[in-house]
Every structure is written in structure tokens, then in C-alpha cells.
Amino acid sequence: MNQFLLNSIALFTAGAGVLSCAPQKQEAERPNILFIFSDDHATHAIGAYGPKHNNPELHKFVQTPNLDRLAQQGMLFNNVFCGNSICGPSRATILTGKHSHLNGMLNNDTIFNSAQQTFPKLLQAGGYETAWIGKWHLFSDPTGFDHWQILDNPGQQGTYYNPIIGSPEGQEKITGHTATIITDRAIDWLKSKRDHSKPFFLAYSHKTPHREWVPGPEEYDLYKDINLPLPTNFYDDYSTRSSALKEQEMEIANHMNENDLKLVPPGYLNEEQLERFMESYGPENEAFTAANLTGNELAEWKYQRYVKDYLRSVTSMDKEIGRMLDFLQESGLAENTIVIYSSDQGFYLGDHGWYDKRWMYEESLRMPLIVRWTEKTPAAAQNNHIIQNIDYAATFLDMAGLEIPHDIQGKSIVPILKEEQMNGWRDVAYYHYYAYPDWHMVQPHYGIRSERYKLIHFYTTDEWELFDLKSDPDEMNNLYSNADYRDIVKAMTERLEKERVTVGDTLELTATSKYNR
Ligand code: SGN
Ligand code: CA
Which of 24, 151, 337, 451 has its CA 20 to 30 A from that of 385? Predict the structure, then answer.
């Protein structure tokens, strides 16, 4: 069916309401969309993505059976890149289908302008029932949603246990593990709160595995008494690259605090939760204090504590996602519900010695994306197209059979999902990170990534980096001044300038953040 016909049906059914039976039938045929979203989930912490070159053995320890099951039933995307690797900006881009410089959310200090066009508003107008449940982190109240409940502790990061949930009715503090609470509420909305006569879009949005990586009650003891493997570039000395790499504050060895390392318990735990926390970390912490580690031994102890907690919290979330997938199956919703899994950006698991994100390097640039669309998408498929978070809004609208407004920058990936013949898909991803000074002190930079090369410009110091991802997938060797790559540098520089114009990012290059140190 062509787009025009689909749009006509959508408009007709949306306008017709419950007056006749035929439109309702059409509504029932339009797919529901479940967007499972998480925070800072690196692809190398998802089993289905397979081993990673700088730490292949880590893969054996990653436990995400439910996401792996989803990938077995759908399509997994290997080259999905955000345009600005930080939370609020990535979410604003997903909502609007526009890069940060157009949607106004350049950094986490901005309040999202909720008056602008977003895909949920368009879905709503097109007859969908829409909801957002979980982490939001855009500071203005969600708009375009028939129902919303968001993590509403100050700063809107939420807490791993006992979060404050905000909704149009006000705030309430809920006891329990946050991934479980979000899942309970999402299932409850699907079961009994939504308008069953309409197709739905639900964003089921986890805070996990954002810093400070606190596991659910049953995952505390995963990886006890074993050592996880270290990435080959854990002791990166940052030579050949921009001076920005030496200035950052995101090293596991030097920039983790007592909360990150579970040397003190989080203040938000109740007595019972605190007991469970201490039961797991107490004896290990005593042994750590007694050992009085220094140098590499201390750095590696921190790495073990950090990556174990990160993977534990991933498994806690995966278990809840499994509960949601089971619910879809049991309730009969699975058949007509497209399930999408993604995260706002990636993360470092000791790669370059780091945690956090922000850089245009692979680990934080890359977003996971898995889509199960039964009978439309082949099972256990993998795809390598260069996709960006600007594409999500267009994709959701296309899935719903609605028109994609011209000012949305992204493209629908529906043809890719259906494995249709396509010409002219993008061959570079565009990136621009602005927030400086800010947490972790990453200098602003912009760049492009093609299938093989990546060019980055740190414009505050006018330093450039070129990487050949084929020979150097870990981005350790900056080739910008290498004479053998002169032609590549020239072509990539010209392309970057062209791309800046194409995406409309031609404002003066300035760092922006209200961060006060
Ligand atoms: C918090 C974290 C930072 C993190 C930002 C942004 N510090 O400020 O480590 O980079 O969030 O993360 S914490 O001590 O409060 O955990 S984002 O995903 O929301 O962009
Ligand atoms: Ca994030």
C-alpha cells in the first residue's frame, strides 16, 4: 500500500472515532509500538552484539538472555550512532527527529522546549494512544502523551531504589527496585489504563544502567569471586590524539567516587535494602581496605567493582524486560506489537581506561538497536546501515502509517526492516558534542563517521583526529598528520564541511554548558 493510502486511512480512522465499526477494525490492524529504552547501555554489554575486539572474553560474562531472545526474533543493527552522546540531547533528538542544534537541547542543562513538533504528538493526532513511563530527563513536562509517569527526583536521573515518580497528578515515592517499578507500571498501563480501541505507542524507559550502577536484589552476587577480563587499551596513554584526552575526568583509575565503587551505600536505601547491600559489599570492602592497594592493582580493583556492577544492573534490567516480553506474549499483544530496544547512547567499560560517554569514539557513539516486527522483519537478522537517532521519529511515524513531516531530519528505517531494495541511504553519520565545562570535562567536538573512517575536530583547541576503523577499531592511532592519509583527510574534511551545511549546523562553534565547578 502506498504512503498516500496509508495516510488517508490513518486520517480517516483518527477522525471517525467510534462512529462506525470499519474504522475501528482498521485501527486494530495498525501495529502497536513498544519502545523499550534504557540509559547508557553499551552494545558490548548485550550478548547478542557478540565479542568486542579489545575485550573479546568479556562477552562470556554478559548476561542478557531476554534482549538476546529479542534479537533472535528480529533485526539487530550494528551501526546506529547518536548525534550528541549525552542523555537529554539524545532524547530530544529522538522525540523531534532533529539534531541538537535544531531542537535546542544542546546539553543536559537545557529545558526541552516541549511546544515543538514531536513524534508522539503526531502519533496522537494520527489516532494512537501514547504513553511514556520511566526515565525522561528533559525537565519540561512530557507533551504529546495521553499518559506519563517519569522519574522525578531532583535532576530527573531517578534512583536505583525507591524513586520519586512524577505524573500530572503530582509526585509519589514508591518503595522497591526502580526497574521493577517501571515494569509494573508499564504493564499496568497496557493491561488496564489505556484506551483499548486505539493502537498504542508506549515508551518503557529504564534508568539502568546509568551511573552509579546498583544491581537489583537478586543480582548483587553475580560474578562473585571471579575476575572479569580487562580491555587491551585499559592503560591507554592517549598519545597521538587530541590534548582533550589528557584533560578528561572519566578515568576509572582516577575519577570514581565512593558511591560509584560501593564503598558507601546509597542514601536512598531502606533498612532491608541496606542490609542486602551490606551483605554483598561489606566483607569485600573490608578486605579492600585491609589490602591497601596502589597503582595498577588499585585501578584494576576499581575496574572489577565497576564493570561487575554495570553488568549486574544490566542483567537486572534484562530480567524486567523479559517480564514485559512475557506479558506481551501471554496477553496476546505480541503478535501486533512492534518491539524496539535502544538506549540513549553507549558507554565505556574500561575502554581507554574510561567510564561515561560524550566522546565521538565508538563505544559512546554507538547505540544499541534491536527491532522485532513479526512477519515484517526477518528473524535473527543483522544490518549494517548507518542509522542515527534522528531516524527514530520518522520510523515510528512510518510504522504507524503516518506522514513524515518534511522538517524531520531523519529517515524511516522501515524499508530496511522489510529488507526492501533501497538507493541513496546516508553514508556518513554526523556528530556534535557541546557540553563544556561539564561533568567529566570532555572538550566540545564535531565530526563525521563513514563506514571506514572517522574525522573529529576539537574546535576549542583546533585539533583534528582521523581514524581508520578497519585497521584501528579501537581508535588508538590518530592518522590526521600521516602523509599516507593526506587524500583521505582532504576528502573527509570537505565532506564534514558539506555535512555541517546539509544538517544546518552552521552556527558559530562554541561550547555550551551552565556547569559550575
Ligand atoms: C550525572 C553523572 C555523570 C553523567 C551525567 C550525565 N554523575 O551527572 O557521571 O555523565 O549524569 O548522564 S552522578 O554522580 O550524578 O551519577 S546522562 O546520561 O544523564 O547524560
Ligand atoms: Ca544516558
Answer: 337
> What count of Cα atoms within 13 Å lies in the side-chain half-sphere of residue 86?
25
SS3 assignment for 346-415: CCCCCHHHECCCCCCCHHHHECCEEEECCCCCCCCEEECCCEECCHHHHHHHHHCCCCCCCCCCCCCCHH
Q: How far apart are CA 272 and CA 138, in angstroms?
A: 32
The cell for 262 is: 560501593
User: Would you give the distance in Å from CA 29 to the centre of its chain?
Assistant: 29
Domains contained in the chain, CATH given: 29-217+312-435 (3.40.720.10)
Nearest to 57 by CA among 230, 286, 262: 230
In this structure, the number of other CB atoms found within 10 A of the CB of residue 203 comes to: 26
Taking only the tens place, the pLDDT of each residue in 349-389 is 999 999 999 999 999 999 999 999 999 999 999 999 999 99
Query: Is the peptide bond between 212 and the residue preceding it cis, with omega within 30 degrees of 0?
Result: yes
What pLDDT is attached to residue 27? 52
Atom of ligand 1 nearest to the CA of 259: 14
* Distance separating alpha carbons of residues 76 and 426, to the nearest angstrom: 18
Rounded Cα gap, residues 429 and 386, in angstroms: 7
Q: Output the ligand 1 site: residues, CB below 6 A.
A: 39-40, 86-87, 108, 137, 157, 210-212, 356, 439-440
Ligand nearest to the CA of 89: 1
